[in-house]
Amino acid sequence: MLKVRELIKDFGRVRIIKNAAFEVKEDEIVSLVGPNGAGKTTLVNLISGHILPTSGRIEFLDHNITFASPYKRIKMGVARNFQITNLFSDSSVLDNVRTCLFSIYGKIKRGFFPANHYKAITQEAIDILELFGISGKKNLLPPSLSEGDKKILDTAMAFALKSKFLLLDEPTSGVATRDKYKVMDTIVSAIKREKMACMIIEHDMDIVSDYSDRVLVLSEGEIIADGKPNEIMEQDNVKEILFGVRA
Ligand SMILES: Nc1ncnc2c1ncn2[C@@H]1O[C@H](COP(=O)(O)OP(=O)(O)O)[C@@H](O)[C@H]1O
Ligand SMILES: [Mg+2]
After folding, report:
1. Ligand 1 centroid to residue 77 C-alpha, Å
2. Which of 24, 70, 186, 236 has the least CB density, counted as fewest CB within 10 Å?
């Protein structure tokens, strides 16, 4: 569903993304891994439209979206997680999701909300919280949530944008190791149930192995490996980049 071709991004004179090319199929969960500074967040920002490439092409469901706005991409079904700092800390968990739904429906329906729409949106927000296992916390304020639940809410909000393809930049960062599996179980089961595709940036290779169908390894802006988790882990260049092991 997503096709990236010869994608290049320069910041000033520095080439940060070098000829990236890959595809993501429907229902696929792909992990994007690589050292700090490899260009992972830049690649996600290029796909979400938050930055534009120097050259190359991005297609989504056979539409050229290379230079489309983030909002256009969201409407087409490409969404990314917000950063935690974007959670509205003085609105309840429910209101955070509801705001997300209003923003997408608001733009579609031009701000016209009859009362029954409001009810429907509230129900939809509750359904999403249920899908992510945090409906019991709907009246809490985000600052009182655990780091894991904040991350789950963050992902639920991206999910609320009705995406077909979800970009998750480090959905478990800041979450204690023992809670990472719970967060990933919650997120991945919601994604699978809705038959969505997903690209996840994750550092923990145990989590990557357990949850991804495929892994892309990025090193200094280049994709140096693309394959099933157990396959790429066998490659000497990948071992060296990810674990510092020299063959
Ligand atoms: N807006 C920007 N302007 C200049 N350089 C940037 C910008 N954004 C990122 N970079 C540089 O691009 C490289 C890749 O960054 P990033 O995509 O955040 O890496 P990662 O997410 O893999 O850690 C880094 O060297 C970073 O300093
Ligand atoms: Mg990053």
Report:
1. 25
2. 236
- Return d(Cα 224, Cα 154) in angstroms, integer: 30
Helix (H, G, I), strand (E, B) or coil at 13: coil
What is the residue extent of each domain of the chain? 2-243
Question: Phi/psi of residue 31, each to 5°?
Answer: -100, 140
Any alpha helices (H) in 132-213, and if so which ranges?
147-160, 177-193, 205-211
Give the strand pairing for 55-60 and 2-11. antiparallel
CA angle at residue 68 from 39 to 171, to 5 degrees? 40
CA distance 125 to 211: 26
Q: How confident is the model at residue 112 (pLDDT cuts 50, 70, 90)?
A: low
CATH topology of domain 2-243: Rossmann fold (3.40.50)
Using a 6 Å cutoff on CB, does residue 40 contact ligand 1? yes
Q: In angstroms, what is the span from residue 190 Cα to ligand 2's centroid?
A: 24
41 lines ligand 1 (CB under 6 A): yes
Q: What is the pTM of this model?
A: 0.90
- For residue 211, give every residue at least 6 positions away whose Cβ sits within 8 Å of its Cβ, in sequence order, or none: 29, 31, 184, 188, 200, 202
Q: Per-residue pLDDT tens for 223-246?
A: 999 999 999 999 999 999 988 876
Residue range 36-70, pLDDT digits in tens: 999 999 999 999 999 999 999 999 999 999 999 99
**In Å, what is the CA distance from 47 to each residue of 129, 137, 178?**
26, 32, 31
